[in-house]
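S.,

Sequence below, as promised.
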Amino acid sequence: MATTYDFIAQNRRRTWLLVLLFPLTFALLGYLFLLGYHYCNSSSYRYDKQQATYSRVQPSAEPSALEMANLSALHFLPCLWLAAMLWIVIAYYSGDQMLLRGAGAIEIHRDDQPEIYRLVENLCIAVGLPMPRVYIINDNSLNAFATGRDPQHASVALTKGIVTKLERVELEGVIAHELSHIQNRDIRLMLITVAGISFFTFLSEICLRMGLSSSRSRGKNSGQGALLFFALGVFFAIYGFLIAPLIRLAVSRTREYQADATAALMTRNPDALARALQKISQDPRVESLDKHASMAAMCIENPLSKHSFFTFLSGMFATHPPIERRIALLRQMDRGH
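The prediction came back faster than expected:
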């Protein structure tokens, strides 16, 4: 039977795999994009009257699309690679605070909400974890997440709704679930994943805006420049919304089950967490996260609007198993306890 130490070692391997997969897959797709772009721009068309068709002609005096793609890749991809690695390093050390600010989370201390603080503290003492920083999100929905790079630099965020609407033992189960992510080092894996996805979606937004701005100008090369920026924006969007979530799916499929099981062992009350999940499933949306859709995978349940495009993509590449299945397994654990 796998232990917590097995989960920790597994997540460490997955983290390194993720760090390698992001730049490798991006380099491959980036090279294919450059090859396609130069192929489209290095050729001209000739009209064949007999066939009534256009055929593509490669000017002999100019370098081929392959040569141009190789030259562009030597200049373009290393710079972007360095920018991505710098972004991940920044996210590793301060990404948790960026995510918490994006969610509108406010830190609380013992004097602010002693009962909540004591719940977290008692569970940490029971399993030998350092006390994380505790945050409250001013939203009446029911959700929670944990973030940070390791147990010594971890935070737990709870919505106002989950604090007020759950029974004490149910809230204890939710907190134990989030502490399990900290204990199993899931938080570091997800922090790097969210940082990677955010980097490419951010680049996509910048390129699309530059393309729109360029299309409005009247310069000689404005049309070609706008087309390039739009193409780059679409490329970054495809990578950020489709390829990166596939990588995330490949490295982490069972972490929610592991966290549920670990939380049940912490509290000795699997049914309390099952009841909490049942209530959470009725109202998990957190409005402040609508603009930070990549954070959805960090939450105990999908916090986005059920009608959003990102929710559709998240459903296709979901790392969260169906909540009904999680509830059933917890109740099975409770019967066997």
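The radius of gyration is 24 Å.

Coffee later?
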